[in-house]
UniProtKB/TrEMBL annotation:
Protein name: Protein-lysine N-methyltransferase SMYD4
Record domain MYND-type: where: 265-304
Pfam families in the record: SET, zf-MYND
Catalytic activity: L-lysyl-[protein] + S-adenosyl-L-methionine = N(6)-methyl-L-lysyl-[protein] + S-adenosyl-L-homocysteine + H(+)
GO biological process: heart development; methylation
Chain ranges of the SET domain: 203-533
Compartment list: Cytoplasm; Nucleus
Membrane spanning residue stretches: none
PANTHER family per the UniProt record, alphabetical: SET AND MYND DOMAIN-CONTAINING PROTEIN 4 (PTHR46165)
Keyword Transferase: yes
Gene Ontology molecular function terms on file: histone deacetylase binding; methyltransferase activity; zinc ion binding
GO cellular component annotations of the record: cytoplasm; nucleus
Length: 770
C-alpha cells in the first residue's frame, strides 16, 4: 500500500534487470538525487507509461452516471434490513450533483427527495445530529425551490422534514455534538507556544543534536506519566484506501463494501457517515463542504484526475506529491525554486548552489557531511533563528538515506515519480517556464527530484495514523477494540524522536493531529523515545533487529535489546511452553528440556509448535461460532481448548489469554456477566505480564471489564475498574478519548442510581451499549 502495486514493482524490476550493465552502474553510482532522477527519467518509455495507465484504469475513481441508481437500490436494501450505518454510507456514495447528472440518464426525479430523506433518517437514528442537520439543510436548499416538484409531493416532503427535525431534536439531548467535542478536545491540549525552539512541543523538552544520535528531544525537567509533550498537525496525511482491490478483481461493477474512504474525511480524517463527495471523482469524500474546498485549493485540484495513478503508485508517492503541492503555499517553496535555479545554472558556482547541492546530496555520505558548513543553520530543518517548525523546510530536511536503499528500489521510486511528472505535465498541471535554455533541467525535473527525495524519506519517516475501531455485534454489549491504520502522514517534529523497543512515550491521534504523551516518568536530561513499530511486547529481539535494520538502517541498542541479549533462552513468557509433568517452563532451542532440575522431561520444539498450530485452529473455529451467534457451542469448544493448553502452554501464553478473552465474550453474549468477568480478569493477567500494568493494551482490557461489571450491575467492582481504566487510558490518550468519555458517563450513571432494591436485578442499564 505504501509502495506501488506489485504488478508495477515487478515490471520495473524486470526493466532494471534488462538494462545494460553500464547504465545500471551509472544509476547505481549517481551521487545526487537529481542525477538518479534524471538518468532514470530518460529511460521511461511510452510503453511503460501505457502499462502503468492500464493498471491505473483498474481503479474505480471516475464518476459513473449509473452509479447513483445502483447505490440507491443497495442502500434501500440495507435500510429495510435496519442496517442504518450501511444504508447511510451507500446513500452518501452520491451527492446531489450526481443525482442531477443521473437525471439525464433516466433517474426518476420523484425518488430523489425520498432517498435523501432516508439518509437523513438513518443519521438521526444513529444519533449523528450534525451530519443529519447538514443533510436536511442540503435537502431543503436543493428541493424547496424546485418548480418541477408537484405541490402534493412538495407537501409530503415538508411534512417528512418536520417529522425528522423533531426526531433529531429529541435525540439531541442524548448525544454530544461531535465537532464541538472535538474542538474542545483540541483546545484543551494546546501547548500555547510555550516552547520557543520547537513550537509543537511542550517546554519540558528541548531539541539537541549529536553525531551519534542525530537530532533528538530531551527532557529539560522531570516529566510525569501522561504529560503532553508534543502536539503536531500532520504536514500532510493521505487516507489509506483500505482493502480495496482494483475493479478487475471484483465481479460487481460497484463496490458496496464500506472502506475507510467512506467513513473518514479525505482531508482532516474525521470520522463521518454523511460524506460530501468530490464533484470530479469518486474516491475523495469529505466531512464538510469546507474541507472539500480547502482540499481543492491546496492539492485536490491537481490530484482529482490522478486518482487511479496515485492508487497504483502507492501512498508514499501520493504523500510526496501532496507535500510539494502544499509547499507551494509556504515560504519554504523558495527551497524548490532555489533548487530549480540551481539545476538550470549547473555550471555557475555560487555559495548558494553549494548549500543546495548539499541539501540534495547530504545523505549519500551520511549525516556527517552536513556539518561544518557555514550556510547551514545549526540544526538541519531549523530556520535562521534556530526555530524548528512543522513546515516544508523541516520536511525537506528529513533524511532520505539515499545510499542505504538498494539501486533497484531507487530506480523504482525514480521511475514512478517520473511517470507521475509526465502525467502532471500532460494534465496541464505544470506549465514550463518560457526561458528554459535547452539541455538544462526544467522546473518539472526539480519538482520530480523533490518528490523522489520525499518518497525515499518516507520509508524511515512516515508515521502511521491510527484509530481505535470498536468491534462487537449488536447483541453483544461488550465491545472489543483494535488499533487500525487509517492514514499515513508526515510529522516533522515526531520524526525527531529516536526509537526504543520499550519507549517512554505513547502516540495517539485525533483526526490528523498527533499527540505524544509520556507513558512513564522521564527524568530530567533523559531522551524522549518513541517506538517505530517493533515493540518489545510484540516481537522478540532478533525479529526487531532485523526489522529495524531493513527498514530504518540501524542496529538497536535500546535498554530492552541490551537486556534481552543477556537473558536466558526461555524467550518471552507469552510464548513459553511448560512441562507436561511438572508444569515448569521448558528451555532450549530445537529440543526443549524441563527447567526444573528434579524433572527429566524433554520434547522437540517442532512437536510443540504443531500442537500450538492445532490449538490455534480450534480457537479460530470457536471464534467463528461466536460470530455466528452460537455462544454455547463456542464455550464448549473453548473449554476443551483450555484443557489442552494447560498440558503444554505456560499460563501466561498469549493464546491462553486470548482464549480467556473469547470465553468472556461468549458468556457476555449469553448475559452471564459474572462468568464473563471472571474470564476477562484472567485475560487481564496475561495482558499485564506481556504489556505491563500501565500499557495501553491494559487500558483497553480494563475498559472491557468495566463494561461487564456495569452491565452486571456489580456497582463497587464497576466503579473500582472504571477508576483503574481511566487512570491508564488517561496517560496514553488524555481526557478526550472516547473510551474515557464513555467511562465517565458510566460512572455518573452509577453514582446517580437510586438505592437498589433487594433481589437480583435482571436488567442492567444496558442503554449505553446499544
Ligand atoms: Zn474534514
Ligand atoms: Zn476529486
Ligand atoms: Zn531495541
Ligand atoms: Zn517437568
Amino acid at each position: 500500500m505504501d509502495l506501488p502495486v506489485d504488478e508495477w514493482k515487478s515490471y520495473v524490476f524486470q526493466k532494471w534487470s534488462l538494462l545494460p550493465k553500464s547504465i545500471q552502474v551509472t544509476i547505481s553510482t549517481a551521487e545526487t538525487l537529481s542525477d538518479i532522477f534524471l538518468h532514470s527519467s530518460l529511460l521511461l518509455q511510452p510503453e511503460d507509461e501505457m502499462f502503468l495507465q492500464n493498471l491505473s484504469r483498474g481503479y474505480l475513481v471516475e464518476k459513473d452516471p449509473n452509479a447513483p441508481l445502483f447505490y440507491r437500490e443497495e442502500g434501500n436494501k440495507k435500510f429495510q434490513q435496519k442496517d442504518y450505518m450501511g444504508a447511510t454510507v451507500l446513500y452518501s456514495k452520491m451527492c446531489l450533483k450526481d443525482i442531477m447528472r443521473a437525471q439525464m440518464h433516466g433517474y426518476p426525479e420523484r425518488l430523489q427527495p425520498k432517498m435523501m430523506l432516508r439518509k437523513a433518517e438513518c443519521l438521526v437514528t444513529l444519533g449523528r445530529r450534525q451530519e443529519a442537520s447538514q443533510t436536511i439543510s442540503d435537502l431543503e436548499s436543493s428541493f424547496s425551490a424546485k418548480p418541477t416538484l408537484a405541490a402534493a409531493q412538495f407537501q409530503i416532503l415538508q411534512t417528512n422534514l418536520c417529522r425528522l427535525k423533531m426526531k433529531a431534536q429529541e435525540k439531541e439531548s442524548l448525544t454530544e455534538t461531535f465537532p464541538a467535542a472535538l474542538t474542545k478536545a483540541l483546545e484543551d491540549m494546546d501547548l500555547k507556544g510555550e516552547n520557543g525552539q520547537v513550537p509543537s512541543a511542550s517546554s519540558s523538552v528541548s531539541l539537541r543534536t549529536d553525531p551519534l544520535r542525530g537530532r533528538y528531544l530531551v527532557a529539560t525537567k522531570d516529566i510525569l506519566p501522561g504529560e503532553l509533550l508534543v502536539k503536531e498537525d500532520a504536514f500532510v496525511s493521505v487516507l489509506h484506501p483500505g482493502e480495496m482491490p482494483p475493479l478487475r478483481h471484483l465481479e460487481s461493477k460497484w463496490d458496496t463494501r464500506v472502506t475507510n474512504g467512506d467513513l473518514y474525511c479525505h482531508r482532516c480524517l474525521d470520522h463521518t457517515l454523511a460524506t460530501v463527495p468530490c464533484d470530479g471523482c469518486s474516491y475523495a469524500k469529505y466531512c464538510s463542504h469546507d474541507c472539500m474546498q480547502q482540499a481543492w485549493d491546496l492539492y485536490h485540484s491537481v490530484e482529482c484526475s490522478l486518482g487511479g495513478l496515485l492508487l497504483t503508485l502507492g501512498v508514499f508517492c501520493h504523500i510526496a506529491l501532496r507535500s510539494t503541492l502544499v509547499a507551494r503555499f509556504e515560504d519554504a517553496s523558495k527551497v524548490i525554486r532555489k533548487l530549480c535555479s540551481e539545476i538550470r545554472n549547473r555550471d555557475t558556482c555560487s555559495p548558494e548552489r553549494e548549500t543546495l547541492v548539499q541539501t540534495l546530496t547530504c545523505d549519500l555520505g551520511g549525516e556527517s557531511e552536513n556539518k561544518g558548513k557555514m550556510l547551514e543553520p545549526p540544526v538541519p530543518g531549523c530556520d535562521l533563528n534556530g526555530k524548528y517548525e512543522s513546515n516544508y523546510n523541516a520536511v525537506f530536511h528529513l533524511l532520505p538515506h539515499t545510499g542505504n536503499h538498494s539501486p533497484e528500489h531507487r530506480f523504482l521510486c525514480a521511475l514512478s515519480v517520473s511517470a507521475l511528472c509526465r502525467r502532471l505535465e500532460a494534465a496541464g498541471c505544470y506549465k514550463p517556464a518560457a526561458a528554459v535554455p535547452p539541455g538544462s533541467g526544467s522546473e518539472l525535473d526539480v519538482w520530480g527530484v523533490a518528490m523522489l527525495k520525499h518518497v525515499l524519506q518516507l520509508q524511515c519517516n512516515a508515521q502511521a495514523i491510527t484509530t481505535i475501531q470498536h468491534t462487537g455485534s449488536k447483541e453483544n454489549s461488550v465491545t472489543n477494540s483494535r488499533q487500525v491504520r487509517l492514514a499515513t502522514g508526515i510529522f516533522p517534529v515526531i520524526s525527531l524522536l529516536n526509537h526504543s523497543c520499550s519507549p517512554n512515550t505513547s502516540v495517539s491521534f485525533i483526526s490528523n493531529v498527533a499527540t505524544v504523551r509520556a507513558s512513564q516518568q522521564i527524568g530530567k536530561g533523559q531522551e524522549i523515545l518513541h517506538c517505530y513499530g517493533p515493540h518489545q511486547s510484540r516481537m522478540r529481539a532478533a525479529e526487531r533487529q532485523q526489522k529495524l535494520r531493513s527498514q530504518y538502517f540501524f542496529d538497536c541498542s535500546c535498554a530492552a535489546c541490551q537486556n534481552e541479549k543477556h537473558s536466558a533462552a526461555t524467550g518471552p513468557r507469552w510464548e513459553a511452553f511448560c512441562c507436561r509433568s511438572c508444569g515448569a517452563l521448558m528451555q532450549g532451542d530445537d529440543v526443549l528440556i524441563c527447567g526444573s532440575t528434579s524433572c527429566m522431561e524433554s520434547v522437540s520444539r517442532d512437536h510443540l509448535i504443531s500442537r500450538l498450530q492445532d490449538l490455534q485452529q480450534q480457537v479460530g473455529m470457536a471464534r467463528k461460532l461466536l460470530r455466528n451467534d452460537k455462544p454455547e457451542r463456542a464455550i464448549q469448544l473453548l473449554l476443551g481448548c483450555q484443557r489442552d493448553a494447560q498440558s503444554f502452554l505456560s499460563g501466561e501464553h498469549s493464546l491462553v489469554g486470548e482464549m480467556e478473552d473469547d470465553l468472556a465474550q461468549a458468556y457476555a453474549a449469553l448475559g452471564d456477566w459474572q462468568k464473563s468477568a471472571t474470564h476477562l480478569q484472567k485475560s487481564l493477567q496475561v495482558v499485564e505480564v506481556r504489556h505491563g500494568p500501565s500499557s495501553v493494551e491494559m487500558g483497553h482490557e480494563l475498559f472491557k471489564l468495566a463494561q461487564l461489571f456495569f452491565n452486571g450491575f456489580a456497582i463497587p467492582e464497576a466503579l473500582n475498574t472504571i477508576q483503574k481504566a481511566e487512570k491508564v487510558l488517561m496517560v496514553h490518550y488524555g481526557p478526550w478519548n472516547d473510551e474515557i468519555q464513555e467511562l465517565q458517563k458510566m460512572k455518573s450513571c452509577l453514582l446517580d442510581l437510586p438505592p437498589i432494591p433487594a433481589g437480583p436485578s435482571v436488567q442492567g442499564p444496558n442503554v449505553f451499549f446499544q
